[in-house]
Amino acid sequence: TDILDEWSGDDTDELFELLETQLGEVGIDLKTEPRQDEDDDDEEDEEEEDEDEDESEDDDEYFEDEDDEL
C-alpha cells in the first residue's frame, strides 16, 4: 500500500518504476517491455491525418473547376 500512496495515479510507467524499486530491494528483478500497440496507433493516426488532408485538397480542386465553368 505504500507504493500506491507514492503513486500519483496518472502515469502507469511511474507505478512500474516504484514497483521495480521496491521489488529490487528484496532481490526481485522486474523486467518490462514497451507496448508495441502504442507505437502502431500513433503511426495509424498520422496516416489517417494525411489521408484526410489529401481528401480536402481534392475537394478544393473540384470546386475550383466548377467555378471555371460558370
How would you summarize what this structure contains?
The chain is an all-alpha fold and 70 residues long. It contains 3 helices and no strands.
Describe this structure in words.
- The chain is mainly alpha-helical.
- It is built from three helices and no strands.
- The protein has two domains: 1-32, no CATH class; 35-70.
- The longest helix is centred in the last third of the chain and has 34 residues, at 36-69.
Key structural traits:
single chain; 70 residues; mainly alpha; 2 domains
- The number of distinct β-strands equals 0
Overall pLDDT, averaged?
A: 68
Instruction: Count up the helices.
Output: 3
**Strand pairing plus helix content: what structural class?**
mainly alpha
Main sheet: strands, sense, barrel? none
How far is the N terminus from the C terminus? 74 Å
How would you spell out the order of helices and strands? HHH
Binned strand content: under 5%
The parts where pLDDT drops under 50 for at least 5 residues are: none
Helix fraction, binned, reads over 70%
Rounded to the nearest angstrom, the radius of gyration is: 25 Å
Shape: flat
Domain count, please report it.
Answer: 2
Please write out the topology.
Blueprint: H1 2-6, H2 12-25, H3 36-69
